[in-house]
Amino acid sequence: xxxxxxxxxxxxxxxTDAAGHESERVVEPAGLLTAxxxxxxxxxxxTRRAGRGFRLDRIVAAAPTAEPARxxxxxxxxxxxxxxxxxxxxxxxx
Length: 94
Hints:
Blueprint lengths: L1 H6 L1 E8 L5 E14 L2 E8 L4 E6 L3 E10 L5 H5 L8 E2 L6
Antiparallel strand pairs: 1-2, 1-5, 2-3, 2-6, 3-4
């Protein structure tokens, strides 16, 4: 995940949602945030065609691709989301 964020690469995820359903996602990562004691990967989800927050403890697997990701503004991805009050990680925030 770190390689995809710092290298601006598309990331493939296996993700388990709150209901326990696992899905495969292709995302363009924007950064890591913390909120409520949990860490989130904030990214543009190509599957859902929207900004999404992925709890790190629900990511089953992650692999960077060789494909460059489009740059995304972290604030825009968060606008109107439940993670709007999250705090950017100093290590990965733009």
